[in-house]
Amino acid sequence: MIHRARDGNLSRTSRRGWGFVALLLLGWGLPIGCGGGVVIVIEGELTPESSETTTMPAPFSEGVTIRPVVGSGVPIGSAFPPDIVIPSNDRAWIVTSSPPAGLLRFDLDEEGTFPSRFFPFPPEGSGIADGIAPAGEDLLLVTMSGHDALLLFDASRGVFTATLDLEAPIEISPPAPDSEGRLVSELEPSFTAGAAFVDGFLYVVTSNLVRTGTDPAANPGTVLIFETKREGNGWRFVPASPPAVVTSGFNPTEITPLSAEFLLVTNTGLLAIEGGESVALSPGSVDLLSTRQRRIVANFPLGMGAPGFQPIAITPDRCFGFLASAAYREVYQIDLSVIPDDFEGEGGVRSLAEGVVADHTHPIRIGGGGKGFLPQIAIEPGGRIAFVTDFEGGTLHPLDVGSIPARPFPQAIRITDPVPAAGEIGPGPLAFRPGIPPRDFTGPDLFVLTGFPTGFLVPVATNIEGP
Question: Chain-centre distance of CA 55, in angstroms?
Answer without folding.
Answer: 30
